[in-house]
Design a protein that fits this description.
This protein is mostly helical. The protein has helices spanning about 5-30, 35-50, 60-100.
């Protein structure tokens, strides 16, 4: 992963964190002036480092990307869980209660075949688009 990371990516990462720290420093300026000054110094170091020596910020960048991938992996699973059990399961239970089978999955022993005859024949496969 470290081979395909450009200096521009690291600079963008650094500038975004500088903006976040600047907002935090400005919010803390009245109540916690020492923290605000410390954040200001960190902003200065981070910005200067990202401009002149961006590869020195490679390790924090890769850590941040890995944390983001981990959070994305977990949240993807959580969202799919909520979607499945919060949306699809109630719809399925509702269809079972009213006796609807939209996919025609019920087994009918009296049928010889489950083949569905088309009422309209498909046209030529030429000029599909």
């Amino acid at each position: 992963m470290a081979d395909n990371i450009s200096s521009k990516d690291i600079r963008v990462f650094s500038f975004i964190w500088s903006i976040i720290l600047l907002i935090l420093a400005s919010l803390l300026f009245d109540s916690h002036r020492q923290w605000s000054i410390a954040f200001g110094a960190l902003i200065l170091v981070l910005t200067v480092t990202s401009i002149f020596l961006p590869k020195t910020l490679l390790r924090p960048y890769t850590w941040w990307v890995n944390i983001g991938e981990l959070i994305g992996s977990i949240m993807g699973r959580v969202i799919m869980f909520i979607l499945f059990f919060g949306l699809f399961t109630p719809i399925s239970l509702f269809f079972k209660v009213i006796g609807k089978d939209p996919l025609s999955k019920k087994i009918d022993i009296s049928k010889n075949s489950y083949w569905i005859e088309r009422s309209k024949q498909p046209e030529s496969m030429k000029n599909q688009f």
